[in-house]
Design a protein that fits this description.
286 residues, 55% helix, 14 helices, single chain, Rossmann fold, N-(1-d-carboxylethyl)-l-norvaline Dehydrogenase, domain 2, globular, alpha/beta, 3-stranded mixed β-sheet
Length: 286
Protein backbone atom coordinates (compact mmCIF):
# COMPACT_ATOMS: atom_id res chain seq x y z
CA UNK A 1 0.00 0.00 0.00
CA UNK A 2 1.18 3.53 -0.80
CA UNK A 3 2.23 5.39 2.33
CA UNK A 4 1.29 9.05 2.66
CA UNK A 5 2.77 11.91 4.64
CA UNK A 6 0.79 15.02 5.56
CA UNK A 7 2.44 18.29 6.61
CA UNK A 8 0.33 21.11 8.05
CA UNK A 9 -2.72 20.41 10.21
CA UNK A 10 -4.55 23.72 10.20
CA UNK A 11 -8.25 24.17 9.45
CA UNK A 12 -7.94 22.54 6.02
CA UNK A 13 -5.03 20.16 6.43
CA UNK A 14 -6.37 18.52 9.57
CA UNK A 15 -9.70 17.67 7.92
CA UNK A 16 -7.98 16.33 4.80
CA UNK A 17 -5.55 14.20 6.80
CA UNK A 18 -8.39 12.83 8.95
CA UNK A 19 -10.18 11.65 5.80
CA UNK A 20 -7.05 9.84 4.61
CA UNK A 21 -6.63 8.08 7.95
CA UNK A 22 -10.32 7.14 8.14
CA UNK A 23 -10.11 5.71 4.61
CA UNK A 24 -7.51 3.24 5.89
CA UNK A 25 -4.38 4.71 4.35
CA UNK A 26 -0.96 4.54 6.01
CA UNK A 27 -0.50 8.19 7.04
CA UNK A 28 2.35 9.97 8.85
CA UNK A 29 1.61 13.52 10.03
CA UNK A 30 3.68 16.54 11.05
CA UNK A 31 2.78 20.03 12.20
CA UNK A 32 4.94 22.94 13.32
CA UNK A 33 2.95 22.90 16.58
CA UNK A 34 3.12 19.17 17.47
CA UNK A 35 0.04 19.38 19.72
CA UNK A 36 -2.07 19.49 16.55
CA UNK A 37 -0.97 15.94 15.67
CA UNK A 38 -2.54 14.41 18.81
CA UNK A 39 -6.00 13.81 17.37
CA UNK A 40 -4.61 12.30 14.16
CA UNK A 41 -2.30 9.96 16.07
CA UNK A 42 -5.25 8.86 18.20
CA UNK A 43 -7.10 7.99 14.98
CA UNK A 44 -4.21 5.83 13.81
CA UNK A 45 -1.73 8.12 12.08
CA UNK A 46 2.01 7.97 12.80
CA UNK A 47 3.83 11.06 14.02
CA UNK A 48 6.72 12.49 12.04
CA UNK A 49 9.46 14.56 13.66
CA UNK A 50 10.37 16.88 10.75
CA UNK A 51 9.25 17.43 7.13
CA UNK A 52 12.51 15.71 6.10
CA UNK A 53 11.66 12.68 8.26
CA UNK A 54 8.13 12.40 6.79
CA UNK A 55 9.31 12.76 3.18
CA UNK A 56 12.04 10.16 3.75
CA UNK A 57 9.66 7.47 5.00
CA UNK A 58 6.55 8.07 2.85
CA UNK A 59 5.94 7.28 -0.82
CA UNK A 60 3.97 10.51 -1.30
CA UNK A 61 3.97 13.52 1.05
CA UNK A 62 1.23 16.17 1.00
CA UNK A 63 1.57 19.67 2.41
CA UNK A 64 -1.13 22.21 3.29
CA UNK A 65 0.27 25.42 4.75
CA UNK A 66 -0.81 29.05 4.88
CA UNK A 67 1.23 30.99 2.33
CA UNK A 68 4.27 31.03 -0.03
CA UNK A 69 6.73 31.72 2.81
CA UNK A 70 5.49 28.72 4.81
CA UNK A 71 5.46 26.53 1.68
CA UNK A 72 9.10 27.36 0.97
CA UNK A 73 10.10 26.94 4.62
CA UNK A 74 8.92 23.33 4.91
CA UNK A 75 10.50 22.41 1.57
CA UNK A 76 13.94 23.97 2.01
CA UNK A 77 16.66 23.73 4.65
CA UNK A 78 18.30 20.84 6.50
CA UNK A 79 14.98 19.58 7.95
CA UNK A 80 12.91 20.34 4.83
CA UNK A 81 11.11 17.98 2.47
CA UNK A 82 13.79 18.24 -0.23
CA UNK A 83 16.41 16.96 2.23
CA UNK A 84 14.44 13.75 2.71
CA UNK A 85 12.57 13.19 -0.54
CA UNK A 86 15.14 10.92 -2.25
CA UNK A 87 14.87 9.27 -5.63
CA UNK A 88 11.37 8.76 -7.04
CA UNK A 89 9.28 9.67 -4.02
CA UNK A 90 6.56 12.29 -4.48
CA UNK A 91 5.77 15.67 -2.94
CA UNK A 92 2.39 17.34 -3.45
CA UNK A 93 1.96 20.89 -2.19
CA UNK A 94 -1.75 21.69 -1.76
CA UNK A 95 -1.17 25.20 -0.38
CA UNK A 96 -2.33 28.27 -2.31
CA UNK A 97 0.83 29.95 -3.59
CA UNK A 98 1.81 31.92 -6.70
CA UNK A 99 3.18 30.19 -9.79
CA UNK A 100 6.72 31.51 -9.12
CA UNK A 101 6.82 29.89 -5.67
CA UNK A 102 5.41 26.66 -7.05
CA UNK A 103 8.06 26.58 -9.80
CA UNK A 104 10.83 27.14 -7.24
CA UNK A 105 9.54 24.29 -5.06
CA UNK A 106 9.28 22.04 -8.14
CA UNK A 107 12.90 22.78 -9.06
CA UNK A 108 14.07 22.12 -5.50
CA UNK A 109 12.30 18.75 -5.37
CA UNK A 110 13.51 17.75 -8.85
CA UNK A 111 17.12 18.55 -7.93
CA UNK A 112 16.72 16.25 -4.91
CA UNK A 113 15.50 13.43 -7.18
CA UNK A 114 11.82 13.60 -6.26
CA UNK A 115 8.63 14.11 -8.22
CA UNK A 116 6.45 17.18 -7.65
CA UNK A 117 2.82 18.12 -8.11
CA UNK A 118 1.12 21.34 -7.11
CA UNK A 119 -2.47 20.72 -6.08
CA UNK A 120 -4.13 23.74 -4.44
CA UNK A 121 -7.75 23.18 -3.49
CA UNK A 122 -10.97 25.08 -4.05
CA UNK A 123 -13.21 24.79 -0.99
CA UNK A 124 -13.22 25.70 2.69
CA UNK A 125 -13.55 23.87 6.01
CA UNK A 126 -16.79 21.94 5.39
CA UNK A 127 -15.82 20.62 1.91
CA UNK A 128 -12.48 19.60 3.45
CA UNK A 129 -14.32 17.71 6.19
CA UNK A 130 -16.79 16.20 3.70
CA UNK A 131 -14.09 15.18 1.20
CA UNK A 132 -15.68 17.30 -1.53
CA UNK A 133 -12.81 19.68 -2.35
CA UNK A 134 -11.89 20.55 -5.92
CA UNK A 135 -8.20 19.67 -6.30
CA UNK A 136 -6.32 21.64 -8.97
CA UNK A 137 -3.35 19.48 -9.92
CA UNK A 138 -0.44 20.32 -12.20
CA UNK A 139 3.07 18.94 -12.66
CA UNK A 140 4.39 15.36 -12.77
CA UNK A 141 1.70 13.23 -14.45
CA UNK A 142 2.99 9.94 -12.98
CA UNK A 143 2.68 11.40 -9.48
CA UNK A 144 -0.81 12.62 -10.29
CA UNK A 145 -1.80 9.09 -11.33
CA UNK A 146 -0.26 7.61 -8.15
CA UNK A 147 -2.05 10.15 -5.94
CA UNK A 148 -5.53 9.69 -7.43
CA UNK A 149 -6.71 7.24 -4.71
CA UNK A 150 -5.92 9.89 -2.08
CA UNK A 151 -7.43 12.69 -4.18
CA UNK A 152 -10.62 10.64 -4.48
CA UNK A 153 -10.89 10.61 -0.67
CA UNK A 154 -10.11 14.31 -0.20
CA UNK A 155 -12.08 15.75 -3.09
CA UNK A 156 -14.93 15.35 -5.55
CA UNK A 157 -12.95 16.55 -8.57
CA UNK A 158 -9.23 16.57 -9.40
CA UNK A 159 -8.56 17.78 -12.96
CA UNK A 160 -5.01 17.52 -14.30
CA UNK A 161 -4.12 21.00 -15.56
CA UNK A 162 -0.71 20.47 -17.17
CA UNK A 163 2.58 22.12 -16.32
CA UNK A 164 3.63 23.55 -12.96
CA UNK A 165 2.03 26.92 -12.33
CA UNK A 166 -1.33 26.13 -13.90
CA UNK A 167 -2.79 24.68 -10.70
CA UNK A 168 -1.70 27.79 -8.81
CA UNK A 169 -3.09 30.04 -11.54
CA UNK A 170 -6.47 28.26 -11.58
CA UNK A 171 -6.76 28.62 -7.79
CA UNK A 172 -5.97 32.33 -7.92
CA UNK A 173 -8.58 32.86 -10.66
CA UNK A 174 -11.24 31.07 -8.59
CA UNK A 175 -10.41 32.84 -5.32
CA UNK A 176 -10.11 36.23 -7.00
CA UNK A 177 -13.67 35.85 -8.28
CA UNK A 178 -14.84 34.59 -4.88
CA UNK A 179 -13.32 37.58 -3.09
CA UNK A 180 -14.84 40.02 -5.58
CA UNK A 181 -18.26 38.39 -5.24
CA UNK A 182 -18.10 38.48 -1.46
CA UNK A 183 -17.15 42.16 -1.52
CA UNK A 184 -20.09 43.24 -3.71
CA UNK A 185 -22.43 40.87 -1.82
CA UNK A 186 -21.50 42.58 1.47
CA UNK A 187 -22.16 45.98 -0.10
CA UNK A 188 -25.52 44.84 -1.47
CA UNK A 189 -26.64 43.35 1.84
CA UNK A 190 -25.59 46.52 3.63
CA UNK A 191 -27.32 48.80 1.13
CA UNK A 192 -30.57 46.83 1.23
CA UNK A 193 -30.78 46.80 5.01
CA UNK A 194 -29.85 50.50 5.26
CA UNK A 195 -32.75 51.16 2.85
CA UNK A 196 -35.11 49.31 5.20
CA UNK A 197 -35.27 45.89 3.51
CA UNK A 198 -35.21 42.70 5.57
CA UNK A 199 -31.96 40.77 5.22
CA UNK A 200 -33.75 37.41 5.00
CA UNK A 201 -35.93 38.69 2.16
CA UNK A 202 -32.90 39.94 0.25
CA UNK A 203 -31.40 36.44 0.51
CA UNK A 204 -34.68 34.85 -0.64
CA UNK A 205 -34.82 37.06 -3.73
CA UNK A 206 -31.15 36.36 -4.55
CA UNK A 207 -31.72 32.61 -4.11
CA UNK A 208 -34.60 32.66 -6.58
CA UNK A 209 -32.76 34.52 -9.33
CA UNK A 210 -29.88 34.22 -11.77
CA UNK A 211 -27.19 35.20 -9.25
CA UNK A 212 -28.00 32.47 -6.75
CA UNK A 213 -25.01 30.46 -5.53
CA UNK A 214 -24.06 28.37 -2.47
CA UNK A 215 -21.64 31.01 -1.16
CA UNK A 216 -24.32 33.73 -0.97
CA UNK A 217 -26.67 31.30 0.79
CA UNK A 218 -24.11 30.14 3.37
CA UNK A 219 -22.31 33.42 3.97
CA UNK A 220 -25.58 35.38 3.90
CA UNK A 221 -26.92 33.39 6.85
CA UNK A 222 -23.63 33.95 8.68
CA UNK A 223 -23.55 37.71 8.23
CA UNK A 224 -27.19 38.15 9.28
CA UNK A 225 -26.44 36.13 12.42
CA UNK A 226 -23.21 38.09 12.91
CA UNK A 227 -21.48 34.70 13.03
CA UNK A 228 -17.88 35.04 11.87
CA UNK A 229 -16.71 31.56 12.89
CA UNK A 230 -13.71 30.85 10.70
CA UNK A 231 -13.84 28.32 7.89
CA UNK A 232 -11.63 30.40 5.56
CA UNK A 233 -9.53 33.03 7.39
CA UNK A 234 -9.97 36.51 5.94
CA UNK A 235 -6.19 37.11 5.92
CA UNK A 236 -5.74 34.13 3.57
CA UNK A 237 -8.33 35.48 1.13
CA UNK A 238 -6.49 38.81 1.09
CA UNK A 239 -3.26 36.94 0.37
CA UNK A 240 -4.94 35.20 -2.59
CA UNK A 241 -6.36 38.48 -3.88
CA UNK A 242 -2.92 40.05 -3.63
CA UNK A 243 -1.33 37.17 -5.54
CA UNK A 244 -4.04 37.34 -8.23
CA UNK A 245 -3.53 41.09 -8.73
CA UNK A 246 0.24 40.47 -8.92
CA UNK A 247 -0.34 37.81 -11.60
CA UNK A 248 -2.37 40.36 -13.55
CA UNK A 249 0.56 42.79 -13.29
CA UNK A 250 2.94 40.12 -14.57
CA UNK A 251 0.66 39.36 -17.53
CA UNK A 252 -0.04 43.06 -18.22
CA UNK A 253 -3.76 42.52 -17.59
CA UNK A 254 -5.73 45.25 -15.74
CA UNK A 255 -7.85 43.82 -12.90
CA UNK A 256 -9.58 46.92 -11.49
CA UNK A 257 -12.45 45.11 -9.75
CA UNK A 258 -10.10 42.62 -8.09
CA UNK A 259 -7.75 45.41 -7.03
CA UNK A 260 -10.59 47.31 -5.33
CA UNK A 261 -11.85 44.15 -3.61
CA UNK A 262 -8.31 43.49 -2.39
CA UNK A 263 -8.27 46.93 -0.77
CA UNK A 264 -11.52 46.07 1.04
CA UNK A 265 -9.96 42.92 2.47
CA UNK A 266 -6.87 44.91 3.52
CA UNK A 267 -9.20 47.35 5.27
CA UNK A 268 -10.83 44.44 7.13
CA UNK A 269 -7.42 43.16 8.26
CA UNK A 270 -6.50 46.64 9.49
CA UNK A 271 -9.79 46.70 11.42
CA UNK A 272 -8.73 43.55 13.28
CA UNK A 273 -10.67 40.84 11.42
CA UNK A 274 -7.71 38.94 9.93
CA UNK A 275 -8.39 35.66 11.72
CA UNK A 276 -12.17 35.75 11.34
CA UNK A 277 -14.02 34.19 8.42
CA UNK A 278 -13.95 35.87 5.00
CA UNK A 279 -17.55 36.99 5.59
CA UNK A 280 -16.18 39.46 8.18
CA UNK A 281 -15.52 41.80 5.24
CA UNK A 282 -19.19 42.68 5.76
CA UNK A 283 -18.26 44.39 9.03
CA UNK A 284 -16.17 47.05 7.30
CA UNK A 285 -19.01 47.83 4.87
CA UNK A 286 -22.04 47.91 7.15
Amino acid sequence: MTSFGFLGLGIMGKAMAVNLVKAGFDVTVWNRNPEKTTELVALGAKQGTTPKDVAAQCDITFAMVSDPAAALAICQGPDGVAAGIGEGRGYIDMSTVDDTTSTLIAQTIAQAGGRFLEAPVSGTKKPAEDGTLIILAAGDKSLYDDALPAFDVMGKMAPYLGEIGQGANMKLVVNMMMGGMLSIFSEGMSLGQKAGLQGEQILEVIAAGAITNPMFTGKGAMLLAENYTTSFPLKHMQKDMRLAVALGDKLDLPLPTAAIANESFKQAIKAGYADEDIVAIYKVVK
